[in-house]
Amino acid sequence: LKLCTIGAARALGLGAEVGGLLEGKWGDAVALTLPEGVDESRLLDTVVTRDRDAVAATFIGGRAVFRRAA
Question: Could you report the per-residue pLDDT of 42-59, keeping only the tens digit for each?
Fold first, then answer.
């Protein structure tokens, strides 16, 4: 995870601006609803193969741009 986030940001010289979910950084994130009992060793596979209804919220630049109604 570090390689894909802060590691990539630092490699591009953008570590002060992006690469983590910290105050003052541009943060993009997706919140997912996963089934109970997800095997941690298969977490990536579970996330990648879930349908779009699994997306609970999407944040771009630190702002919520999508939130699924409960």
Answer: 777 777 776 677 788 998
Rounded to the nearest 5°, which phi and psi values hold at 26?
Answer: -75, 115
- CA distances to 22, 42, 58, 62 from 65, in Å: 18, 28, 6, 9
- The whole-number pLDDT of residue 24 equals 82
Could you tell me if 6 and 19 are in contact, meaning their C-beta atoms sit under 8 angstroms apart? Answer: yes
Alpha-helix residue ranges (DSSP H) falling in the chain: 6-11, 43-49
Return the structure tokens found at 42: 């298969």
Contact 19, 5 (CB under 8 A): yes
How large is the average pLDDT for residues 29-35? Answer: 81
